[in-house]
Amino acid sequence: MKHIEPIAIQGASDTKTMVDPKGKKNFPTKTRMYMHIPKPIYYLIIPLMAMTTMGVQSQEIITLPHTVPDAPQWSHSEKQYFSPLWQTETVTNVSIPTMEVFRPDTPNGTAVIVAPGGGLYALSINSEGNHVAQWLAKKGITAFVLKYRLVPTGEDGVLDLQNDWSTDFEGTKKKVQQVLPLSIADGLSAIAYVRKNAKEFNLRPDKIGFMGFSAGGAVTMGTGLGYIPGTRPDFIVPIYAWMTVMEPYSVPGDAPPMLVICAADDPLELGPASVQLYEDWVTHEKVAELHMYSKGGHGFGMKEQGLPSDDWIQRFYDWGVAEGLIINGN
User: Fold this and answer.
1) Chain center to CA of 13
2) What is the DSSP letter of 280?
3) DSSP letter at 69?
4) Lowest mean pLDDT: which of 87-91, 164-168, 170-174?
5) Helix-strand-coil percent breakdown of the chain, rounded to 5?
């Protein structure tokens, strides 16, 4: 496999922490089937032959250029495991940002960087990451699942999140506030990397989008609001984005097209902030579309619930085609 030279970019500016509007999140656990992931070597692309349930393979893992902060410090290695609390595969203790690449058989030139959610303590790596990427690749879109830096935790980050949130809410906010700027910097680094290496991936450098869920939605908006030349996403898709993590913002003069997706019955009450995002873009005469489902809850991702929200990803594809961001080949 040909080596792709990574690049270094400037980090993002500071932002505030994620806050539950009413301080009452039931963080749905403990661990089984641990897989300890050693810290990758800088600037390395590792072939990955992992078969997936949807028939699309990820071909490589890319370690992104990043600066190493004085704080926080990670005492545990990155780990993927099944969380009984969330009933899904999760990743915790990400200290070195990486991307897993899902290449389509026939790329249409569009790329989407996918940022899973998980309260900045964990990543819901399948429902809001790999399964999204597999679907996109089947549509000709080259997908990159981003593991951005997370709050350092113990062996079970999901359980730590639940315990921290219920026993020390303000302390949890401070932990998140410390790490979020690094997560956003990882998102910007991912955009710069994909754009610089667009030819290697058979991509158009003006069709690189960013999609994120919940805390990953905050990372998405961090890239859509805090970019510099070379790191501007060509479109953004915040999905039940946790906007209370962000400081007050101004819509950029060249703000990227945006598709906002959320459910009105989200137990974290993220609907109003999603509506506000849409209104802010429209008020500034920027391209925006909003899909607010009456039912869906929080964290639906690629889960099948027998609801209209199950089809959100097809609505994204339709929007991308209508806006000329995706060439419809299948």
Assistant:
1) 18
2) H
3) P
4) 170-174
5) 30, 20, 50
